[in-house]
Design goal:
Blueprint (H helix, E strand, L loop, with lengths): L25 H10 L1 H21 L4 E8 L15 H6 L4 H11 L5 H7 E7 L2 E8 L2 H43 L1
Antiparallel strand pairs: 1-3, 2-3
Helix pairs in contact: 4-5, 4-6
Length: 180
């Protein structure tokens, strides 16, 4: 066949046409890879050594996670108004509570570091997730567990005060009704 039958337009004279759909001849790629196999082997070896070094020297990080499910809108203030969900979730990791967590665990870590290692996020309107990270799986678990315990104790104490306030209000209302 002469070159006129391969005239696909836009090609210079003397160039062989490329097959439609393939930008590079597969045989040509295989020949290039075979010719440069030493360079490819060196690159693969360097990458493998770098990965092994990274695995050995990079610190391991473990995460522990818990999910707190609650019913209804929780109440956090004395007026009895429910907070926004973000305020409720954020109250889990405020510095005053993290100080309690740190003291409970007996850690010397600065509060800012504890905040970096703790992630609290809303999942739905009635649930939130607490994730703690540490270099040791037991420490990650302890961080999440202590954070949840402190949060629950504060919530329970507030709810007890609120319940006591409501009982006193009802008793006053009952006495006022009896006097009439």
């Amino acid at each position: 066949m002469d070159d006129d039958t391969y005239d696909l337009g836009g090609e210079q004279q003397g160039e062989k046409p490329k097959r439609p759909g393939l930008p590079v001849e597969p045989r040509r790629v295989i020949r290039i890879l075979a010719r440069e196999r030493r360079l490819l082997g060196i690159g693969l070896l360097v990458g493998l050594v770098a990965a092994v070094i990274a695995v050995i020297f990079l610190p391991k990080t473990y995460e522990a996670e818990t999910v707190l499910l609650y019913e209804g809108a929780p109440v956090l203030d004395a007026e009895g108004t429910p907070p926004t969900q973000q305020a409720f979730v954020s109250s889990t990791a405020v510095p005053s509570r993290l100080i309690e967590v740190r003291e409970r665990l007996g850690w010397e870590e600065p509060i800012e570091e504890l905040q970096k290692r703790l992630e609290v996020a809303a999942i739905t309107d009635t649930s939130m997730r607490i994730v703690g990270s540490a270099g040791d799986p037991e420490d990650a678990y302890l961080l999440v567990d202590a954070t949840l315990d402190v949060f629950m104790e504060h919530q329970l104490a507030f709810n007890d005060k609120e319940l006591q306030r409501l009982i006193e209000h009802n008793e006053r209302s009952l006495e006022h009704a009896r006097e009439r």
